[in-house]
Amino acid sequence: MRLHARCAMAFLLFAAGAGVSTSLSALQASSIPTTQLIKVEDLVKLVQGPEQQRPLILQVGPHVLYQQAHIPGSEYIGAASTPEGLQNLRKRVEGLPRTRFIVLYCGCCPWGHCPNVKPAYDALVAMGFNNAKVLYIPTNFGADWVDRGYPVAKGD
Amino acid sequence: MRSGAITAILFALVATVLAVGLFRLHHPTSSERHPAPDFRLAQLDGQPLQLSSYRGKVVLLDFWATWCVPCKEEIPHLVEFQQKYGDRGLQVIGISMDDAPDPVRTFAQQFHMNYPVVMGNAKVGEIYGGVLGLPIAFVIGRNGLIYSKKIGSVDMAVLEREIQNLLQTE
Fold first, then answer.
1. A78 touching B (Cβ < 8 Å)
2. pTM score of the predicted model
């Protein structure tokens, strides 16, 4: 009886732990498949290249960061960690062909701590988009884009 | 053998120059220190806060947001610093880069933030050199000059020693 109780307790603890880790990984950028990431250097080439090859670039981070500096041509969607941000994202892309090349980015915090890119990526996948990429920003947008001299735009 | 030694010495010299350069970038010497740009922003209760009114105190200016995980980890330490050193002249000031104040108010209550928090904007970010990633903190001396800039997660023991040193100055 005692052994059964211990086994049951151990199972419950394991299940609780697994649940927590699953819910955390669902939020973490590091759980996005690496095949779906695009490097900063590669996106810069696309931004500076022919217009017809440019992806639709969506900023899914905080507004105050977008206002200070953003990728030229990118559109502000809003923080995808909030229901409003996700709603804006779905609304923006709902009429687009599911093969459309879309790049999501944020850069608010170090990659493993970004709360926005994973929910945004998951939303696009759930809507059937099969050519959605996420810009890999290891440190933040300032360090990995602006400070490297890549093109930026300011304001809304 | 000799060329190997020369290469090693050159490598060591370059590494030292780079290390010193990086250190000085974040810890400017007295002649390189710049005044902390002044601002007037609304606190969570609507009252205005003017940075220059804290002249004479050591100010720890912390750019943060409720969605920033490393910021959340640091805030209990900042609360502790304010409690521990407030009567010796430390003033922590939080600048939230959240888009709206409601989550900030809730957060401030939950974390028992014992120092003023203002709502930041793009303008204040720009006058501080661009706040394009969080957390970022500035240590400002009693004379209003910026002593150091901390980008990313901070070693709290190092920060505390820096605050203690600055508090000893008049």
1. yes
2. 0.78
